[in-house]
TrEMBL record:
One Pfam match: Fe-S_biosyn
SUPFAM superfamilies, per the entry: HesB-like domain (SSF89360)
Chain ranges of the Core domain: 6-103
GO-annotated molecular function: 2 iron, 2 sulfur cluster binding; 4 iron, 4 sulfur cluster binding; iron ion binding
Coiled-coil ranges from the UniProt annotation: none
High-level lineage: Bacteria, Pseudomonadati, Pseudomonadota, Alphaproteobacteria, Rhodobacterales
UniProt name for this protein: Iron-sulfur cluster assembly accessory protein
GO terms for biological process, alphabetical: iron-sulfur cluster assembly
Length: 108
């Protein structure tokens, strides 16, 4: 059986900051075809979950993964990175055999 993706405390904390003072949105993490390496991550905010989404919860926040993307994200770690060149949600994906320099696309 494939392990579900994990979300770090840092990613949940950043999502809580984004949602502060607003109606809380969930962070959707999906995989789609495309990008320079074959697959690309689609990370966006959404108001709610679809009925068959995997919902990962922490710190009062939710991260959503659709059933089509789930096999591509098995065992992945969803984190938040803040560096001098910018801040973003990042995915450490053990299923990716290679990824592009920007980290938004990968191949398997």
């Amino acid at each position: 059986m494939n392990l579900p993706p994990k979300v770090t405390e840092r990613a949940f904390a950043r999502l809580a900051q984004i949602n502060a003072g607003k109606d809380p949105a969930a962070l959707r993490v999906a995989v789609a075809g495309g990008g320079c390496s074959g697959f690309q991550y689609d990370i966006r905010l959404e108001p709610g979950a679809e009925p068959d989404d995997l919902v990962l919860e922490g710190a009062g926040q939710r991260v959503l993964v659709d059933p089509v993307s789930l096999p591509y994200l098995a065992g992945a770690v969803i984190d938040f990175s803040e560096e001098l060149i910018g801040a973003r949600f990042v995915i450490e994906n053990p299923n990716a055999s290679s990824s592009c320099g920007c980290g938004t696309s990968f191949s398997m």
